[in-house]
Design a protein that fits this description.
- A hairpin with a 3-residue loop joins strand 2 and strand 3.
- This protein is globular.
- Helices cover 40% and strands 21% of the residues.
- The strands form four sheets. The protein has a six-stranded antiparallel beta sheet, with helices on both faces. A two-stranded antiparallel ribbon has the order 7-8. A two-stranded antiparallel ribbon has the order 9-12.
- It has two domains: 128 residues, Phosphorylase Kinase, domain 1; 85 residues, Transferase(Phosphotransferase), domain 1 (Orthogonal Bundle), CATH 1.10.510.
- It is α+β, with helices and mostly antiparallel strands.
Amino acid sequence: MADGNDFYLSRHEKRGLKREKPRSGVEDRNVSEGVFDRRTLAALDKAMRRGFIDELVGIIATGKEANVYRGIRDGRSVAVKIYAVEAADFTRMTEYVRGDVRFGGWKNRRQLINTWAKKEYSNLMLASRAKVPCPATIGFMENILFMQFIGEKGKPAPRMKDSPPKNSQKAYDTTVDGIKKMWKGGLVHGDLSEYNILNDAEKPVFIDFSQGLLTTHPNAQNLLERDIANIAKYFRNQGVESDEKEILQKVTK
């Protein structure tokens, strides 16, 4: 995901957008990009009325399938992840939802995207209960996920890819321990790498759990081994002795 520019959308402006066509600015750009379509705007307004957030004040990162925004709730920053309905990879998402006993079927693209948001929310809940370092959940509304903002004073923590830990061995140990806790808690991340771990004041924090699967899923072991291979490679490049087989044994024993 790449950094974006700040913008401001208050509850009042969201309600105005429901009543009339957006005239210019961020609303026009994102409606055309498939991020803030009319139904997403309505879901965001409903979430605001329920107290999930008070307003959106900036964009943290953009991606092919979702954008992450900074919101404000009771004076504090929160992260708001909005899945783009039109831009999402329908085929890839289907592969990671099919066979997951927690979720039923879907009839169209929007229902699948909403299930995808619910899936990440559910995975974060599992990870949090297992004491995995990850954002705490606030709630979800259709294709929008609300969660803890990781960073300080409105500035998001960088990805480990962009800000390698100063103490690589300590970060490695924490990361492997997080993978183990997650596996013991019944979950595999499925897309873990330096791209999906934040360096929050030298503490690794796992993010982007949408591809996660239960450990009972037929593909769970393959995904675990892929996650471990990614982590081992990254930390070897940081000067840490890391072996995939040893990590796998430590995680699953």
